[in-house]
Amino acid sequence: VNASRQETKLMEECDQLIEIIQQRRQIIGTKIKEGKVVRLRKLAQQIANCKQCIERSTSLISQAEQSLKENDHARFLQTAKNITERVSMATASSQVLIPEINLNDTFDTFALDFTREKKLLECLDYLT
């Protein structure tokens, strides 16, 4: 009878430990998923910024090409001046045109190390 009671108690205690571990796994898993969502959102914003940069650059190139085809010298000088100013502004604000892209963004905040916990579990000894 005593042995059966001890076995039952052992199973209950181990089930509680397993429950605690599963709860912690769910909490940590949720945090990792949230971090992933944040990083994906940042990447999507960086992609959008790059697309805008490409569109602005393409527009500027098209305008410059059209200006080079201009036969009217006065009109060419006017458009060339405008294009030169736009290129100067684009060059001066290169941070705006060339967005910062950080591909090395890692999950350093989620450095998982279970060494200590594994050792503690291996050292569990309920017998006194």
3D architecture notes:
The chain has 128 residues and is mostly helical. The chain has one domain. Helix content is 77%, strand content 0%. It is built from four helices and no strands. Helix 1 packs antiparallel against helix 2. 0% of the residues are buried. The mean pLDDT is 82. Pfam families: COS (PF18568). This is RING-type E3 ubiquitin transferase. Residues 68-127 form the COS domain.
Helix content: over 70%
Averaged pLDDT: 82
What Rg do the Cα atoms give?
Answer: 32 Å
List the uncertain runs. Answer: none
Based on secondary structure, the structural category is: mainly alpha
- Number of beta-strand segments: 0
Q: What spatial form do the alpha-carbon principal axes imply?
A: rod-shaped
**Number of helical stretches of at least 4 residues:** 4
β-strand amount: under 5%
**Separation of the first and last Cα atoms:** 19 Å
Number of domains: 1
Question: How is the main sheet built?
Answer: none
Order of helices and strands: HHHH
Overview features:
128 residues, mainly alpha, 4 helices, 77% helix, rod-shaped
